[in-house]
Task: structure prediction
Amino acid sequence: ETGVTQTPRHLVMGMTNKKSLKCEQHLGHNAMYWYKQSAKKPLELMFVYNFKEQTENNSVPSRFSPECPNSSHLFLHLHTLQPEDSALYLCASSQDWVAGSRDTQYFGPGTRLTVL
Amino acid sequence: GDSVTQMEGPVTLSEEAFLTINCTYTATGYPSLFWYVQYPGEGLQLLLKATKADDKGSNKGFEATYRKETTSFHLEKGSVQVSDSAVYFCALTPSSSNTGKLIFGQGTTLQVKP
Result:
């Protein structure tokens, strides 16, 4: 399988549930990203990992917890979410982040999350 | 802070019409500029990019030129097809960024009718 894959593609959860989103990239990249795409807002960066280290947390609530066990996998653990967290969650990867490199980011198809 | 502004959609065109989607940005220095496209039910795909002033990015008949003087990166295509119907996002990576973050515009929906 090539590119960036995300599972599940669709997820419905209650506010008291705990679930995880998974992202896997098969591109040999070292940087991975989580973005949130809401219906009425521009795409928002949530987290950045570079060589498995978190390098950016864009003021994301603690009910979203990322995990990057290796350069190929990225998880987003969800707990006690709110209905306003319903959105499309997109994962992306790039070669790595070296200052000034401006590498292209490649996106997965996203997970459509609905919080009831 | 840095930001991207796109023309509001939806944009509805007939097949073979000329397309322009406006994009302007606010940023210090020389950001890298991108156009991404999102087809229904899919993730974002890079359409084209430009990394310095006066660069022209092109792909699949689409073009955009990095205009520093007008802080713009308008997307154009001479003859659109029904298959071009999608949401188009303009984005930038700030020159000062040390994390590779992309800042997106709100997206413009393009509908092409036969």
Q: What stands out?
A: The longest strand of chain B covers residues 86-93. The CA atoms of residues 62 and 77 of chain B lie 5 Å apart. Chain B has a mean pLDDT of 92. Chain B touches chain A at residues 4, 32, 34, 36, 41-46, 49, 51, 89, 91, 93, 98-107 (CB under 8 Å).
